[in-house]
Design a protein that fits this description.
alpha+beta; four-stranded mixed sheet; two-stranded antiparallel sheet; 5 helices; 6 strands; 52% helix; 22% strand; globular
Length: 166
């Protein structure tokens, strides 16, 4: 059972996106955000280096050209959690991958309407590979700050993209 106890101390239990940072969203984009947050809360591995035991709350925002991870320890007696620290990442390394990912998403949605199944599958595979690449960039950029597993990084990358979705 130690594994279950450890999982609870290395987990995000609440996530909040800064509304002022988000791009204006269509209903579909808002749905994508909610699904990513739901999936993230359901299953994640989140271990801030030197942050002690969680569970954790995470606030994500864009401040100028930086992505801010506001990490807090979840404490039912302290609304908003107990501050652990902030991690600031430049968005520069993500710009091209996000742009390319959005182009592939558009191609995928166009293909769904008009293409043969084999073409749809090809575009979907490219889209997933691009998403994985963005997730790996996130893990590399957070290296020595926050440890994440790949699925957590994938869901966080989706949320990072949601700051730019229009």
């Amino acid at each position: 059972m130690a594994d279950d106890a450890e999982k609870q101390t290395r987990k995000i239990v609440r996530i909040e996106l800064d509304e002022r940072s988000l791009a204006r969203a269509t209903a579909d984009i808002e749905h994508e955000r909610k699904v990513a947050i739901y999936d993230l809360i359901e299953e994640n591995y989140f271990d801030p280096i030197g942050g002690g035991d969680g569970p954790f709350e995470l606030g994500l925002s864009l401040v100028e050209t930086r992505l801010v991870f506001d990490v807090r320890r979840h404490d039912p007696g302290a609304p908003g959690g107990v501050p652990v620290g902030q991690v600031h990442l430049s968005m520069s390394p993500f710009r091209k991958i996000i742009k390319d990912y959005f182009m592939l998403c558009e191609s995928y949605y166009d293909a769904i309407r008009t293409a043969a199944p084999a073409q749809i599958e090809t575009v979907d595979m490219a889209r997933r590979a691009m998403h994985n690449e963005g997730s790996e960039i996130l893990r590399e950029r957070l290296n020595e700050k926050i440890n994440l597993d790949l699925n957590t990084a994938r869901r966080l990358f989706t949320l990072i993209c949601s700051f730019h979705m229009r």
